[in-house]
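Researcher: Sit down with what I've pasted below and flag anything odd:
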Amino acid sequence: MKLEYSSDKVKEQCTSVKAAKKLFAGDAILARSLLSRINALESAENIKDVIVQPTFRFHDLKNKKRRDLEGYFAIDVKSIREPWRIILQPLNENNEPYVPCNIDEIAGNVRIVEITEVSKHYE
């Protein structure tokens, strides 16, 4: 699957061990887990390959604090016990978000995702 990034900073966090460790306040285990998840996303043929893996805990995001999160999804960086999530948005072949984004219908066709952020989304 092809990965796009919302910013150079997010790309660096997802591709550099040093930047990932900085994001996680020096936690090397979380940093390696993030890079492992990114590698798994790149290796997937489409988003359906990610959805069917229970360890990723792929889930949609709800609108929160006046933030429109329709069409955005998250996967765990390491596990459900850790607060860190990789926030992503499926894109079509023109690098545009699906509208509407019914993931059950489009999962087999999504071959591009944008990594929007890596954060403690629920805090």
The chain has one domain: 2-119. The mean pLDDT is 93. Strands lie at 2-5, 59-60, 73-76, 85-91, 112-119.
